[in-house]
Records
---
Amino acid sequence: TITPTPDPARMPGLRIGKVSSPAGSSAISVPISFESKGAAVSAMLFSIDFDEQCLNYRLGNARFNLPPGFVPGIAYDATDKDGEIDITISDYVPPMNALPDRVLVTLTFGVTCAPTPPATTRVAAVAFAASPPPSFGNPQGGDIAGWVQSGAVVVQAPPPPAPAWGAAATGAGSEYYGIQ
């Protein structure tokens, strides 16, 4: 028999948002959303890898949005360069419920970089790690195939400083306004 190729349009998945950091912002919140596509998912495990050159994270900077009965777990290891933040979400008590579509968790990162001029933005990846791969489980304890979509933080450059009082509008320097 031939096993049909999985169809991502019918599989559950996780999506990390692409968010813009306002100019000069020191922190940014990144949502991680779940889409069930009709599948009963009662447990999941995934790891997040992020651009350490531009973002930092501290344990405790996660806000979970779970229905009653679901238990979150989170671990952070700054020395792990492929999946620094490990997250589990499970319903451990039978009868196990299925997760509804929603933002499951929002991670808040410190912004530690700025675009290099003349660029006005810098993109910092926030991605699902390949190791361990994301996994989904159904209420009977079986595996469910799923998909993930990574995201990013777009760091905005601060606006250029306003010209000093008396400076020419072209920025070419100062003009003399004295009496001759």
Note: The CA atoms of residues 27 and 145 lie 34 Å apart.
---
Amino acid sequence: RYNQLLHGHPYWGVWRSIMKKLYSFPFLFVVLLLSSCVSLKDAEVTKYEDIASYKYIVVNSTDTLNSSAGATVYGGGYYSTGKSVNPKDVISGYLIKKGFVILPEKDDEVLSDTLIVNYGESGRRYVYLGMGYTTEVTIQFIAAQTNKIVCVTTAEGIGDTEADDIKEAITRALDAIFK
């Protein structure tokens, strides 16, 4: 009988619409809550020697990465932005700020004080319910004279574009060495 009274009410359609929205709100809230933030894994560092005992750095060449992000805005317009990053440049800039001298190639006169830096992307981790990912990088420091590993660091980053991911990951990996 109660149900029959409601169906005959002039505002039944409005109430029904409001109740449907309220019932779906908790689901949408949980989805937004779970996908709104990502915790990046802590950077990992393995030190075999103190890199502060070296003065010169040779960073091996890396390719420039171009990436872009875009979105359709209200009214049907499209907005996009493009970014590029060369990991060698990011690593070199960071190490220059820390007081190292960047050499274009190995110099036999200062070989005992020189580190060779290698860079590589070492993985991806999907986040945001599979709609995004973090990029993990590994940076390796090798003694130029002995070819022994001095230090290895790994970290992940996430940003608007893949270029942002890589910049953040490199910075986090290097920060972990110098903290």
Note: The mean pLDDT is 85.
